[in-house]
Amino acid sequence: MVDAEPEAPLPDPPRDERHDAQDPLTARKRDRVRARVKRYVDVPIAIRTSDLPVRAASAVVMIVVAVAALRAGGAWLAGFIGAVALATFVEYVRLGYRAFGSWSGRIAALLFGTAYIGVAGLLLAMMPVFLMVGVIGTVIFIDTFAYFFGRTIGGPKIAPTISPSKTWAGLLGGIVGASLWLAGFVWVVGGRGADEIVGFDILELAQIVGAGIVLAVAAQAGDFFESWLKRRAGRKDSSNLIPGHGGVFDRTDGLIPVALLAGLILAPAA
Fold first, then answer.
1. Taking a C-beta distance cutoff of 8 angstroms, is the pair 92, 106 a contact?
2. Nearest CA to 122 among 95, 89, 92, 91?
3. Helix crossing, 202-233 with 255-265: angle to 10°?
4. Which of 230, 180, 189, 231 is nearest to 209 (CA)?
5. Structural domain of 60
6. Domain count for the chain
């Protein structure tokens, strides 16, 4: 009797890629990943920005200190303005020294900064308190709305070679913020009653929006000037004094031109 040859093992069935794709465990993992991605995308970018909590905490501290100085008034307020102006000037000088290689350029930058920052600080210190509050509040609203509009909407850059993060959406946000603050400021200072909350006429609204545009553009110009100076100096921030914000000059860059405009135009009338 001849032994039969052993049977060859049966080949594995062909791999069904579609079946693998529908594996319950794989499908659940995929669904979880999609859910996480969807939650991430749906949250505005301004809210999920990693430095937002630090920026907010630092902003609260700065506002509290500024309000305390305003309430104290007198020598305390003058000293606070002087300290801020001095810190801004020191950071400006450091940037100017690095930005310009020649001593003639450094001296010119020093002279310009002395007038630019010194006159703005002097005008701010000479303002009536209510006007000072109006100027500072305008800049805060411009910066805040520009930050959230720019981070949330994004879009085309204004001058990417100078400041890659500044967008037209951010400028629009600054205009909106300035206009809203000025409307509220005029309503409060003007002593309007509760029945006049929306009682602005067309001319008043046009003046408020026009002032908002001018001040937002001025603040943006001051921001661009500092950004240009930092780029020449090879620095990201004017210093690291304020967590999440950089240096003092990084916070006063928009305030300086707004204070100059308000001081030269509005302070004499006030």
1. no
2. 89
3. 140
4. 180
5. 52-265
6. 1
